[in-house]
Design brief:
The complex is a heterodimer. By secondary structure, chain A is α/β, with parallel strands linked by helices. Chain A contains 15 helices and 33 strands. The longest helix of chain A is centred in the C-terminal third of the chain and has 28 residues. The longest helix of chain B is centred in the last third of the chain and has 25 residues. Classes of the chains: A alpha/beta, B alpha/beta. At the A-B interface, β2, α2 and α15 of A face β8, β9 and α9 of B.
């Protein structure tokens, strides 16, 4: 028996209080006047003895109450042999099935070791099997059924996810809260160094968990991998498409590797690359000759190493014709089409072709044939085109309006609907121009630009920005770029011109990314890169598209979403490497290439010191036992004790004593009331 | 109408005049205004002389005719003399409830004065004493005598100790006519000493009445735990146990009362024990009824 907080025994000094009150303090009763003491006789000795006897029980109870309180705060405990708590002990078998366990026979070795540990347990000892990938997954319930546990270990399959030992500790911490007894944790893993969390303290386990590590490998293994691939997600001109890949070697000697570009299972290009020892090398394919539609592409190397799964990197490419853009301008304005057209041609990998039309000739133009429409300082449109353009926007089309000096003379912005407050000529003011003050970097048109910091604006139209989102403002607060949703479509308003007269924006380097991002934004054809990492999430729908069914086909050809999930799920986690086929809620088809996290390709293992530290000190064992906690270093098991706290039992006695003391004290108080 | 008047209720009435009127009218009305009640000395009967009787009461005319000595006894309408001796020592200030012994004595005295002066047209006087005579109001039938007596009662604040010798000697100096002497006290003195001191009044042909006024807790004290009691006259302190107060003390006070009653009666002195929780009119009615039967 011991005490966790023996210094609380200093509180025993409080026992002096009831002793003083009951025995030492002189009884001070209030003298009472009486008419005559003629018939009274003194009885002093008798009264003192009586008083002391009367309160003796109360004194004993109060002393006992204080003693028990001091005892409880000292937190007494008794040591019980660990064998006596075997009935409550739970063996936890955790097998690492992260991507790196695909190397060689690591997973098979881990499962075999797990089965042998399972066989060595006591027949009545309960056990539970877990698999550790990106998270801790229970493969069985706590049970002493050997066959069920055996089947659970055999059912563990390798995954493409990245391992994280921090997730093991986090999962065990929450799991231990639901288990009353101690947990004997056996972890079977390749102890990959890259699976360590950023902070070593994240590996700390609860005190009731004793960890035994079972490394299946003890040293690093050479491994080559396609570390990354940089390829466009969408191709309009195959001659301009480029594919770049990085080949990495981990613990490898210098070697020449052959990198192949595979399109739809056919090798279309091959290159030799010299990879330095334990280093990286880049390889570039100058053309990506893919057919129209989606193509499943990959960069593959020949490595013949222990982990062939990372020798290939998948990506998907969509090839389509360039989309047409309608550019309407004043007949006298010849500068705007040139600047905007050149910027469009220089960007977006030739995804768009521009058709320039004077505003007066737009009567016969059908807007719905274009990806989006640009109105450059146009004040009036043919009525039929005006109606068609409004229907086009409300049906989901996009329009960019540039407000030059002509619009400044009108009272309202056509289509956008905002009132023009005034036209401001900054060239007449001090400094001659204004720059951009605040920008919203989350807006697609500005995201890739450098906040337009050096662009000079000599003129701007000040409009009422009610009902629209302001993406950029000039330094005087004038809204410069406004975004308004009309029906299902969008209208962007640039409160200045595109003609290099009202500003120098067309000559500025930020103009091209602005045009490119605006084109993708308004046309709705912006497609993310065709390559993702295992564990990442894919957005299936926007919130407004709820109840529209989506479809996901995983690399194995399965449809992982149930019917309910297909109509409600907004995201989907990509768990396997390979190609996913998607039909999104907005009706678009897509193909995504998914690759394992390349940090799993580095097969370096944790140092023995780190393993000992994890297995020993961090879970409460001392240094001498930490070495034994790593399997294979010692066969003998020292006698272990578990501390069982008596705090609750003592507090129960405190409660009982307090109740009795209150009752006895109340009896004495009751006598006084009668007086 | 309430038959008995609670002393606690009367204590809330500030005027002794009103208290006396309330008490006397109450019990007189209850007794149908009997003409036999009063203190006046109307001849009632002859009684054979016995040694010790006052020779002044012997009817010498009868003796001349019959050569036998007879005492003349009185009742009836002639004016009498009522003198009340009120003990105003500190012990009379004790109270265990809303009425102290001195208050109760004041109520009794005021009621007797009212009865004598207003109803019987008798002379009445007052002696307030402790260890000496503090106040003396000569018996008189003059107009305003009742108010003087009541004022004297109101100014009788308890203090000092009790000594019966001085006031009684003083009383005897002023006593010229036979009358009724009423002593209101708690008599915390040995019964023998009390009776021996008061007995001389009786020898002068006076009718002496002792009203022994005690608080209920003086007869039956109730203590929950040992306490220190302080004697109100001597300031003596004494620790007293509940066992003694509940067992031995009642026996001693009862013996004292009984001895006082016995010695008083054997000396021809009327004795009445009055507890301060007893209704005033009830106490007076009992006393007057007994007097009537005796006369």
């Amino acid at each position: 028996m011991g005490f966790l907080a023996p210094w609380f025994f200093a509180g025993a000094a409080a026992l002096a209080v009831p002793l003083y009150l009951h025995l030492l303090r002189r009884h001070t009763s209030t003298p009472q006047p009486f008419s005559s003491l003629m018939f009274f006789e003194p009885r002093t000795q008798s009264s003192i003895r009586h008083r002391r006897l009367r309160y003796l029980l109360l004194l004993a109870l109060r002393v006992a109450l204080l003693t028990l309180l001091v005892f409880a705060f000292a937190d007494p405990f008794i040591n019980r042999p660990a064998a006596s708590v075997t009935a409550n002990k739970l063996m936890a078998i955790v097998v690492d099935n992260s991507f790196s366990m695909r190397a060689g026979s690591r997973l098979a070795d881990a499962k075999r070791d797990g089965l042998s540990v399972l066989a060595s347990r006591a027949p009545t000892e309960r056990a539970q099997v877990f698999a550790l990938g990106s998270g801790l997954e229970a493969m069985s319930q706590p049970t002493d059924d050997s066959r069920a546990l055996h089947a659970a270990i055999e059912a563990i399959q390798p995954t493409d996810s990245r391992g994280n030992f921090g997730e093991l500790s986090r999962g065990l911490r929450s799991f231990s809260n639901s288990v009353s007894g101690p947990i004997d944790l056996h972890f079977f893993s390749d102890m990959q160094k890259s699976d360590m969390p950023a902070n070593f303290s994240d590996l700390a386990l609860p005190a009731k968990v004793s960890l035994t590590l079972h490394p299946v490998v003890t040293s690093a293994v050479a491994n080559w991998a396609v570390e990354s691939v940089n390829a466009p997600g969408q191709v309009w001109d195959v001659k301009k498409a480029r594919v770049q890949a990085v080949i990495a070697g981990y613990e490898t000697p210098a070697a020449t590797r052959t990198a192949s570009l595979v399109v739809n299972s056919k090798v279309i290009a091959t290159q030799k690359v010299q990879v330095p020892a334990n280093g990286r090398a880049a390889v570039e394919f100058n053309s990506l000759n893919v057919p129209y539609g989606f193509s499943r592409c990959a960069v593959r190397i020949d490595s013949d190493d222990a982990l062939p799964a990372d020798d290939i990197s998948y990506f998907a490419v969509e090839r389509s014709d360039p989309q047409k853009v309608l550019f309407l301008h004043q007949a006298s304005d010849t500068r705007s089409p040139i600047y905007f057209g050149d910027a469009l041609a220089a960007s977006a990998e030739s995804a768009f072709t521009m058709q320039s039309v004077a505003a007066g000739q737009a009567a016969s133009v059908e807007p719905s044939k274009y990806a989006f429409v640009v109105l450059s300082d146009v004040t009036s449109l043919p009525s039929s085109f005006d109606n068609d353009l409004e229907r086009y926007v409300r049906g989901g089309g996009g329009v960019l309006i540039a407000a030059g000096t002509n619009i400044g003379r009108a009272s309202r912005i056509p289509l956008f609907g905002a009132s023009i407050l005034n036209a401001q000529y900054y060239s007449n003011g001090p400094g001659g121009f204004l720059t951009v003050g605040d920008t919203d970097p989350s807006h697609p048109s500005i995201a890739k630009a450098d906040r337009w910091s050096d662009v000079k604006f000599y003129y701007a139209v000040k409009v009422d920005d009610a009902g629209s989102q302001v993406a950029a403002r000039l330094t005087d607060g004038t809204p410069l770029l406004l975004d308004k949703k009309i029906g299902e479509g969008r209208v962007l308003l640039l409160a200045s011109g595109l003609d290099n007269l009202t500003n120098d924006f067309p000559l500025h380097p930020d103009f091209v990314p602005f045009v490119e991002q605006t084109a993708f934004y308004l046309s709705g054809s912006e497609r993310p890169g065709g390559s993702r990492v295992v564990g990442s999430y894919l957005q299936l729908r926007a919130a407004k598209e709820r109840a529209v069914s989506v479809e996901v086909v995983d690399p194995a050809g399965r449809r992982p979403l149930s019917l309910q999930e297909a109509t409600t799920a907004q995201t989907y986690q990509l768990n396997d490497a390979g190609f996913y086929e998607l039909r999104l809620a907005d009706g678009r088809q897509d193909v995504v290439g998914v690759n394992a996290d390349r940090r799993e390709s580095d097969l370096a293992v944790m140092s023995p010191d780190a393993l000992s530290l994890w297995a020993g000190k961090l879970n409460g064992l001392n240094a001498s036992t930490s070495e034994q906690a790593v399997a294979g270093t010692s066969a003998s098991t020292p006698q272990k004790f578990s501390q069982q706290s008596l705090w609750w039992y003592v507090m129960l006695f405190v409660l009982l004593t307090a109740v009795v003391e209150s009752w006895v004290a109340n009896l004495h108080l009751g006598v006084r009331r009668e007086e | 109408m309430q038959r008995f008047l609670d002393p606690a209720v009367l204590a809330r009435i500030s005027s002794l005049d009103l208290i006396a009127k309330t008490v006397v009218d109450g019990f007189v009305a209850g007794l149908h205004r009997s003409p036999d009640f009063g203190f006046s000395q109307e001849f009632a009967e002859y009684r054979a002389y016995s040694p010790g009787d006052d020779l002044r009461h012997v009817d010498w005319n009868v003796f001349a005719r019959t050569e036998r000595a007879y005492l003349k006894r009185y009742r009836g309408e002639t004016n009498s003399l009522l003198t009340i001796l009120l003990d105003a020592s500190s012990s009379m200030n004790y109270s265990s409830h809303s009425v102290s012994k001195i208050d109760y004595a004041r109520f009794i005295a005021a009621s007797l004065f009212y009865l004598a002066i207003q109803n019987q047209r008798d002379a009445a006087g007052l002696i307030i004493f402790d260890d000496e005579v503090r106040s003396y109001i000569r018996p008189s039938t003059r107009f305003g005598q009742l108010h003087r007596l009541l004022a004297g009662l109101e100014h009788a604040e308890p203090r000092a100790r009790t000594d019966y010798a001085k006031p009684l000697n003083h009383f005897q100096q002023f006593l010229r006519r036979r009358g009724i002497a009423v002593v209101l006290s708690d008599f915390f003195e040995p019964a023998e000493s009390v009776v021996r001191t008061i007995e001389p009044l009786r020898f002068h042909g006076n009718e002496v009445v002792l009203f022994h006024i005690l608080d209920p807790r003086e007869i039956e004290p109730k203590l929950g735990e040992p306490v220190i009691l302080i004697d109100s006259e001597t300031s003596q302190r004494m620790e007293v146990t509940p066992e003694y107060a509940h067992a031995e003390y009642p026996q001693k006070i009862a013996a004292h009362i009984e001895e006082l009653r016995t010695r008083a009666r054997s000396s021809g002195i009327d004795y009445f024990l009055l507890r301060t929780d007893r209704p005033l009119d009830s106490a007076l009615a009992e006393y007057l009824t007994i007097r009537q039967e005796r006369n």
